[in-house]
Amino acid sequence: MRVLAQRPSRPFFFCSLLVTAVLVGCSRPAPPEEPVRSVKLLTVGVGALQSSLEYSGEVRARVESRLGFRVAGKIVQRQAELGQRVKAGQVLAQLDPRDYQLAAEASRAQVASATTQRDLAAADLKRYQALKDQNFISGAELERREASLKAAQATLDQARAQLASQGNQAGYTTLVADVSGVVTGIDAEPGQVVAAGTPVVRIAQDGPRDVVFNVPEDKVGQIAAGSEVAVRGWAGNASMAGHVREVAASADAATRTFQVKVSIDGGDAPALGSTVYVTPKALSHAGIPAIKLPTSALRQEGQSTAVWVYDAATSTVKSQVVQIATADGNEAVVASGLTLGMQVVATGVHVLSPGQKVVVYQPKNGPAPASKAQTAINSVAVPALPAASTAPAATTAAVAASTAN
Question: Where are the domains of the chain?
Fold first, then answer.
């Protein structure tokens, strides 16, 4: 008996085709190949540092006096005002003088009493002298009268000195300027009771002016007394020459910086309290050769800073670790890791990977002329900057690169 094969039902066949189509449609397509990126390059060449260390300073008087009363008392009037120009002998403030005036009057009364006692002792001595001439008294009695006269004279001298002292005390209740200058500070107000010597008014004396600024500990050793300093006003571009007059021997307790005073001509100096720019010549790096790169060419690789170096033979990029010494304006100064003639990716470094193929970007107007690589010099170390590595390098600046797409 022959068994005939059962043909599959038509609905089952169509379901199989539908499942197959769905599975084919849900499968992931093959990833597209990564496009070849276009990069802008710069060629490492020779250049010089342009920026210098500049600090903010303040114009001050070389001598600033803090004036106070020589006696204690209550301030009843203050004539001096902040910013006022005063002359020597001008009244600045006054204390209540009544107590000192009464003390002076008491001293005058003591002088009058001592004068009367002295005159009486002098008259007694004169009478006893006449009696001694007539041998009515002994010599010892005459000597006692002479001693009484000397004691009375001493008491009178003491009273007169006390009167002079009390007169001075009364005069000290008026505070006068001992020099000509400008009032730069008020430390006490009318109605306030002050002790003797408490500062009341500060006066910046007329004469030479100083520019005062602070430098950190790692720079103070390079600044010496007498070194040149360029001073420029905050508002204007006019520059004036100055010389370091004094360098603090110890650091400020709060800021841990050292104060430097620069002497400038008082006639050409800006107004007191003006803010100025100070550029010490001893800290200037202008003109020193160095390798410089725009910050857009740098990237972080772990704990190191690196750049992408272009390999023209394979049209690929590779990572190169560099050491950054300092900044020069908007550029970074490279201490080691690069040599003259290397081509470095200028922008878009965050989208590249090691060994990636790239093409050199060509401007629409045609390729810009590349700067010629120059002969490397012996050391990459910039004076006063970190030492270079042993890899061959040049103290050069990177040629300016165009911006990235």
Answer: 35-50+286-405, 71-96+173-204, 98-169, 208-283
Give the three-class secondary structure for 65.
Answer: strand
**pLDDT grade for 77, boundaries at 50, 70 and 90:** very high
Beta bridge partners of 205: 181
CA torsion sign for 314, 320, 325, 326 is positive
Tokens of 118: 């002295």
Q: Are 335 and 381 in contact (CB under 8 A)?
A: yes
98-169 folds as Helix Hairpins (1.10.287)
Domain 71-96+173-204 class in CATH: mainly beta
Over 60: is that where the pLDDT of 258 sits?
yes
> What is the rounded CA–CA span in Å between residue 261 and residue 259?
7
CATH topology of 35-50+286-405 equal to that of 208-283? no
Give the CATH fold of the 35-50+286-405 domain: 2.40.420
- pLDDT tens track for 110-144: 999 999 999 998 988 888 888 888 888 788 888 88
The highest-level CATH class for domain 208-283 is mainly beta
Q: Is the pLDDT of residue 14 over 50?
A: yes
Alpha carbon distances (Å) from 305 to 134, 323, 324, 335: 119, 7, 8, 12
Q: How far apart are CA 246 and CA 255, in angstroms?
A: 19
Q: For residues 217 and 167, what is the distance between their CA atoms, to the nearest angstrom?
A: 53
Q: Residue 179 class from Cβ within 10 Å (0-12 exposed, 13-18 middle, 19+ buried)?
A: middle
Structure tokens at 136: 């009515």
Question: H helices within 27-93, ranges in order?
Answer: none
